[in-house]
Amino acid sequence: RKEVEQDPGPFNVPEGATVAFNCTYSNSASQSFFWYRQDCRKEPKLLMSVYSSGNEDGRFTAQLNRASQYISLLIRDSKLSDSATYLCVVDPGAGSYQLTFGKGTKLSVIP
Amino acid sequence: EAQVTQNPRYLITVTGKKLTVTCSQNMNHEYMSWYRQDPGLGLRQIYYSMNVEVTDKGDVPEGYKVSRKEKRNFPLILESPSPNQTSLYFCASSFSTGGHDEQFFGPGTRLTVL
């Protein structure tokens, strides 16, 4: 199956810092892209979908680069509560009924 | 409250003793699936179901069975558990038949097989 790759980290950043994660995907036909957040030993939860034009939600910005087959997540003004693992998720689209999950990037925001 | 529930949340069992992990959603979702999560391997899909009575294998189906007799329930069955099935299991559901939208995950079941 087509793969999704993420830098596992951990990324240790001070409060207030800006941090960016990238995720590459191998299936050029992929249709939809998502970022999920997973706190330690908890279930993943949708953080944001990633649209072709890029999208922003407060301190979080997600972008898609189809030509280079990667998506990114930018977190500005990091908070302690942002500490979590961020999962990149790719939907191959029509004809597939399985999402592809990256292994996640761990972020620790330090006081 | 819209949610996915799993039971039990924690289970320690012995090799070969059949067990069932239940999953139920109250959002009238079409698509349901089971994942296992292991350190360094991420989330791997075990089975998924696009609708009642429609199920299919995911990436790691060996040693597992599922059924979808009702829309809301999607139990995971381990007929003869083995230690390599020790893992954190998540059930998930989504609105669309193909699972192409937001996945809602249950709280997880931590299984230990001795």
Explain this structure.
The complex is a heterodimer of chains A (111) and B (114). By secondary structure, chain A is mainly β. Chain A is 0% helix and 52% strand. Chain A is built from no helices and eleven strands. In chain A, strands 2, 4, 5, 9, 10 and 11 form a six-stranded mixed sheet that branches. In chain A, strands 1-3-8-7-6 form a five-stranded antiparallel sheet, with no helix packed on it. In chain A, strand 4 (32-38) and strand 5 form a beta hairpin. The N and C termini of chain A lie far apart (40 Å). Helix content of chain B is 0%, strand content 50%. Chain B is built from no helices and eleven strands. Chain B has strands spanning 4-7, 10-13, 19-25, 31-38, 42-51, 54-57, 65-66, 76-78, 87-94, 104-105, 109-113. The mean pLDDT of chain B is 95.
Q: N-to-C SSE series of chain B? A: EEEEEEEEEEE
Please count the beta strands of chain A (DSSP E, at least 2 residues each): 11
Q: Class by helix and strand content of chain B?
A: mainly beta
Tell me the major beta sheet of chain A. 6 strands, mixed
Structural class of chain A: mainly beta
Count the DSSP helices of chain B. 0
Helix fraction bin of chain B: under 10%
The 3D shape of chain B can be described as globular
Low-confidence stretches of chain B: none
Return the average pLDDT of chain B rounded to an integer: 95
Radius of gyration of chain B: 13 Å
Shape of chain A: globular
User: Kindly, what is the distance between the CA atoms of the first and last residues of chain B, rounded to a whole number of angstroms?
Assistant: 36 Å
Strand content of chain B: over 45%
Quaternary structure of the protein: heterodimer
Helix content of chain A: under 10%
Instruction: Kindly provide the radius of gyration of chain A, computed on alpha-carbon positions and rounded to a whole number of angstroms.
Output: 14 Å
Low-confidence region ranges of chain A: none
Number of strands of chain B: 11
